[in-house]
Amino acid sequence: MLSISTSWFDHNTQSISDWLNAIKSIGYNAVELSYKVTQEQLNEATETIKKINIKVSSIHNFCPTPDDGNSPRHISNYYRLSSLDVEERLSAVKWTKIAIDTAKLVNAKVVVIHAGTLDFEDERSPKLFQLFVDGQTDTPEYSYERKRILKARNDKKQPYIEALNKSLAELADYTKERGVIIGLETRYYPIEIPNFEEIGYFLNQYDKQVMGYWHDVGHAEINDRLGITPHLKFLETYKDRLIGVHIHGMKGKRDHLAPFEGDMDLEPYLSYFTDPVIKVVESKKFADEKLIRQAVKRLS
Fold first, then answer.
1. What domains lie within the chain, and their CATH numbers?
2. CB atoms near residue 119 (< 10 Å)
3. CA dist list (Å): 164 to 75, 172, 224, 263
4. Closest Cα partner for 58 from 3, 115, 10, 114?
5. CA angle 209, 212, 216 (to 5 degrees)
6. CA dist 139 to 144, 189, 228, 250, Å?
7. What is the mean predicted confidence (pLDDT) over 78-99?
8. Contact criterion met (CB below 8 Å) for 279 and 1
9. Which of 203, 210, 217 is nearest to 261 (CA)?
10. What is the pTM of this model?
């Protein structure tokens, strides 16, 4: 099974039915329904999926997109399971349960989650990334900024970890009863949750019927490029709990290109993605369409 995420779907100009037919004609036999899919689009997609006999590999939380209020954040972090604000945390639990119900509805086995972040400063770490883009990773200034962020993260993380623990505890029975597994995804920014060590911390609390590790090649790669955790260390350490992967290309710090596009060599990692690991191409609309098509053969 080779899947492609609706992150490659142009929500503004296409109908989701047309897109599903198109990706099947390209050669993808499954789809991941992601966090930009509205309830209306989900209804339409559910009917089309039945008609054209395409599988749903996974659901990316939150799906459908929450419609009970505006969020100041990127749609992928609409509500945070790690929030110290109880109302927001409970909203995140509520909509994660809805995503689990979506997975049950379309016979998907995994709900991929963004577990959360710390809120002590801009989560995008703009100074660190600007130094990285400017080629300053070998400078004392870069080393200082990276150490500062990681120390602050370690000093301030505990309340957020505790909040996330509460959320996951509320979700564990719900997901297990419905035969759906939570996919704990590698994160991109240094102050997001989980970091490398925290992946193991959370996996050790839940059995394989509740939670598995979801590897994102771009997120692991940026950890490597920033000098935080080597890419292969994620896979070597958590390969026994690996249930799925987001595959895409990367250039510099920009990810979600087409697979094999950019300056990241995917070859060292592909041997980890054998069945039954779910393989999802998670490219965005700016990805090269020709390479999206070619990826079918190379990844299969």
1. 2-299 (3.20.20.150)
2. 16
3. 19, 12, 25, 34
4. 3
5. 155
6. 9, 20, 15, 24
7. 97
8. yes
9. 217
10. 0.97
